[in-house]
Specification:
Shape: elongated
Radius of gyration: 39 Å
Strand content: under 5%
Distance between the termini: 141 Å
Structural class: mainly alpha
Number of strands: 0
């Protein structure tokens, strides 16, 4: 075999391999980008959605262990059954009933009512349960007007102590006198 012919065949085979490796590298790069994008999107999913994605029937194609690894999910989450606190549910139901009966009660009065009904619960717990349930006391109270704006009808008085040196105790006294008019009731 001629050396020049062998070199030519080697270069042609090498060029084909470079083209194939380039195509494979391009495909691997695309798959890496897609995998990173999917991992980022999976982090935003909640636990319940991730658990729903695990398919135990396809364990021959991909094991449950591998599915959990890809989803960044602990396998113990698959088998965990949450414990329901019946007492907590009963308290929440009683809070709802009290709210439906008397919606003007705040957390303190609801707490007192729960104690009267035989529930042993703290005020902080009642407050947090009411927040969870989205319950707030319904009050027929008008919102206060803007209190930072002065009333134009009221007179303004100048500051009389400006420029006065106060050097001893009881030299200056101040008070705020408000005139409150009470209706005169005549007894006949």
């Amino acid at each position: 075999m001629e050396p020049s012919k062998a070199i030519k065949e080697y270069k042609e085979a090498n060029a084909k391999l470079v083209v194939e490796v380039g195509a494979y590298a391009k495909k691997v790069g695309q798959l890496t980008i897609e995998k990173d994008w999917l991992v980022e999107k999976l982090q935003d999913l909640g636990l319940s959605k991730k658990l729903a994605m695990v398919d135990e029937s396809k364990s021959k194609v991909m094991s449950v262990v591998r599915q959990c690894e890809l989803l960044h999910l602990s396998r113990s989450n698959l088998y965990y059954a949450p414990v329901v606190n019946e007492y907590k549910l009963a308290i929440k139901e009683e809070i709802k009933a009290i709210f439906e009966e008397i919606p003007i009660y705040g957390a303190k009065k609801v707490h007192c009512q729960l104690k009267e009904n035989g529930f042993s619960v703290s005020l902080n717990t009642v407050t947090s349960y009411r927040k969870e349930l989205g319950l707030r006391a319904i009050l027929a109270v008008r919102e206060p007007l803007c209190l930072t704006q002065p009333n134009i009808a009221h007179p303004k008085y100048s500051y009389k102590l400006r420029g006065l040196d106060i050097v001893r105790a009881n030299q200056v006294w101040s008070t705020d006198i408000r005139l409150l008019l009470k209706p005169q009731i005549k007894l006949e």
